[in-house]
Design brief:
Elements (H helix, E strand, L loop, with lengths): L4 E5 L7 H14 L4 E6 L4 H10 L4 E3 L1 H4 L1 H12 L4 E5 L17 H8 L3 E6 L6 H12 L5 E9 L2 H11 L6 E6 L8 E2 L2 E2 L6 H18 L2 H8 L27 E5 L9 H9 L3 E5 L10 E6 L8 H6 L1 H12 L4 E4 L1 H6 L2 E2 L2 E2 L6 E18 L11 E14 L7 E3 L2 E3 L1 E3 L2 E4 L10 H13 L5
Parallel strand pairs: 1-4, 1-5, 2-3, 2-4, 5-6, 6-7, 10-11, 10-12, 12-13, 13-21, 14-16
Antiparallel strand pairs: 8-9, 14-15, 16-17, 16-18, 18-19, 20-21
Helix pairs in contact: 1-2, 1-8, 6-7
Length: 453
Amino acid sequence: MVIPRLVVAAPASGAGKTTVAVGLMAALRRAGHTVAGFKVGPDYIDPGFHAVATGRPGRNLDPMLQGEERVAPLFAHGAAGADVAVVEGVMGLYDGALGTEGYASTAHVSKLLEAPVVLVVDASAAGRSVGAVVNGFVAFDTEVRIVGVILNKVGSDRHEAEVRAGVAPTGVPVLGVLRRGTRLTVPSRHLGLVPADEQREQASAAVDAAAEMVRQGVDLEAFVTEARKAVELNAEAWDPADEVAPTADPPGRPVVAVAGGPVFSFRYTETAELLAAAGAEVVAFDPLTDTLPAATAALYLGGGFPELHAEALSANDGLRRQVATEIAAGLPVVAECAGLLYLCRELDGHPMAGVLPATGRMTGRLVLGYRTAIAATTTAFFDEGRRVRGHEFHRTAVDLDTDVSPAWYLPGGVEGIARPRVHASYLHLHWTATPDVPTRLVAAARVHAGLDT
């Protein structure tokens, strides 16, 4: 299939990729395009802004968590119905998982998608030297096709002329110039930008500002022209129905409750698609204000920032008691990161669901990175010895009251808590690489709902 597409990359973090990518998505949409937005890597926050900018779900492309063979099919799935796709990179263009020579980097993904790259360069502290930077990135890997440069944080007309003069000999066209002092003005905190789900009005205003900045500073027509030069993508679109095995014509669809709202905003778009394909009725709810949806037969608690909303979560004592009661009665649960903390007895002194014999607390230590894990305990969702790849991203810790069955063996020890129908840990998985997990969650939900024996 032919999908006009461009990857927005940078020499390093902090150059303005998110500002430019979000602004491009929103500006192209305002110009009449149907835009699909993607993020390289396991990031949850940027895709939330992509969704605001495009009006479509934000999606991730991550060879490490999805498997490189799924990247192009997942891209084709997410880009269906769009006339242009914008892929926001991660870190520097060639920066991937440590020790892997660029595996899961933006460059790696661009090659898997056969997608041209536009390089966003921070020109605030250089002039002609920017040309050397661009030339070096072009020459570093000739399989990566850099088709344009957007100069960010340019100070004046004179500064712009000097930078352009440096870039000109490289033959890479300058597609846009953004002036210093204009940036995506959204609050940040200990794990990056505040998610769009937590500040809808502010997120929309920031996206509008980024769109206007890009409209004024970037040649959108030239950008789309380069995107349309992308070659035909030799990939069949990923289909969640091909990944799961629902019972043929099952009587009824069990309700799988998926936590959402401002606290539980860290979840992948494909999670709900896989659950629905496996035969579930997926119902979102907000643990800050709601109770469990009617007839809930299984529960998925994803990631987010419960440490910043612990008091408000605790105040919904009706839901806390309901979750504890239902889990005691056999409700199947998969909990990742924020979900683990919510199931603890307390978080920073605030009572939580009290399902697990543990307490959660905020720390000053950032735990971040890909993990290879082995299931330490057999549950309804994982068999002991199952090997997976996941990602951790948190500044909290969990202290156990007693010995428990761990969820995972990690290189540094054990992690998480596992029970026959409860799997709770810090590890985030992308379920496209483990489609048997949503299938098994739905199967357990059918049993809990009395639809199967």
